[in-house]
Amino acid sequence: MKAVILLSGGLDSSTILYQAKADGCECYAISFDYQQRHRRELESAKSIALSAGVKVHQIVNCDLTVWGGSALTDKRLELPKKRTLAEMSQNIPITYVPARNTIFLSFALAWAETLEADRIYIGVNALDYSGYPDCRPDYIQAMQEVFRLGTKQGREGNPIKIVTPLIDMKKTEIVQLGNKLGVPWEQTWSCYASGESACGVCDACRLRLAAFAELGLQDPVPYAAV
Amino acid sequence: MKAVILLSGGLDSSTILYQAKADGCECYAISFDYQQRHRRELESAKSIALSAGVKVHQIVNCDLTVWGGSALTDKRLELPKKRTLAEMSQNIPITYVPARNTIFLSFALAWAETLEADRIYIGVNALDYSGYPDCRPDYIQAMQEVFRLGTKQGREGNPIKIVTPLIDMKKTEIVQLGNKLGVPWEQTWSCYASGESACGVCDACRLRLAAFAELGLQDPVPYAAV
Fold it and tell me: Nearest CA of chain A to the CA of B149: how many Å?
């Protein structure tokens, strides 16, 4: 079974890569250099892909800063800091990148069809998340329909399946799953900022730290003193 | 009304750009340099965008030759030649580029959401075409659902609308529409090959020439002697 895995280098996508391996897939990882503020995550993606022993790791260049529209692609916009989990869950935040998962899934689909792959793994998570519209089950179902109708393979009755192992999990459950699968957390990168250490105060750091803390575990990634 | 127009530089996309203008839209054209065999079409896209007086013309780089899978992105594969229209309509041809319209529509969606645009125009055509899966009405409907669920604007009840003026038209009807709208055909480029003149024998040339001939019109684009 062949699978393309969307790998950002963060906690969620690293876990699904290890899940795809555990599911018996031959793994093809795909990452995106979209000139994101936190391009540091691409180094993590490379390490994780190597550790997991993927068959190919493809890094696609697609500059999304040309039109901006997000604090991750326009450095003039400030990252939200020190928000509580309750605050994060209320609105679609400024770190939302317009159509990002649609773009990423489209490229993954193109590659998957060329490889004649069976599956695409994506680490979307509708709980404990920052309210991104393109991380929810109804959106994934709509993309699945696009996969069925928009490709030769789909029209021939053999659509590539979108697999979302984390979609209904809490962040603590994802950490527990990753621990079980042996994900090397120290190689991952979640922080939206671009320092040597993770900032500890952006939404991505706060969610991650809260999950490790709730489980009584130490996150091995270095954090700046806050 | 703001609209993003997918502009390849060919006959169909040039016609929808002029249609969007006629519909009263402020036009933002987007083209893709995917290292296609017929990159010559990008020069046509630039000319047409200028002639139509678009507000911005964005050319996005996204190299699709890294995985190939099509005669348009892998020069080792041969272009079909001198096929009849009946032959073209039978199968999905080797010029099919996996997930191409899904990738293009995703980028257009990202830009449109950033611009707070109302519409995206795409020149897909389900008749008189080479059987591409991602040019059919059910596929477009599926993408429309992705637009609704996968964006902030869509979740807020104001999804960007995909407009497909040509979807049910025959190629002859498209030429007639373009004539009415004043599309400068001599600036357009449809040929899949990469010469100074259009080849006259690839599927795209054959479809185009047949339409002009059926209408008793002369196609002003230069063709190689066949």
Answer: 5
| Residue B223, domain member (yes or no) | no
pLDDT at B225 > cutoff 80: no
ipTM: 0.91
Asked if residue A198 belongs to a domain, the reply is yes
Residue B185 lies in a domain: yes
Whether B68 and A100 lie within 8 Å, measured CB to CB = no
pLDDT value, residue B49: 98
- Choose the mutation target among A104, A130, A149, A162 for the interface with B, i.e. most B CBs under 10 Å: A149
Which residue of chain A has the CA closest to B106? A103
What are the b/e assignments for A10-29, b being 16+ CB within 10 Å? bbbbbbbbbbbbeeebebbb
Confidence bin at B70 (pLDDT 50/70/90): confident
Q: How far apart are CA A172 and CA B30, in angstroms?
A: 42
- Percent over 70 (pLDDT), chain A: 98
Number of domains in chain B: 1
Determine contact, residues A132/A96, Cβ cutoff 8 Å. yes
Task: List the 31-90 stretch of B: residues with Cβ below 8 A of A.
Answer: 58, 60-64, 66-69
pTM, 2 dp: 0.93
B224: in domain: no
The CA radius of gyration of chain A, in Å to the nearest whole number, is 17
Q: How confident is the model at residue A35 (pLDDT cuts 50, 70, 90)?
A: confident
- Which CATH number goes with the domain that contains A6? 3.40.50.620
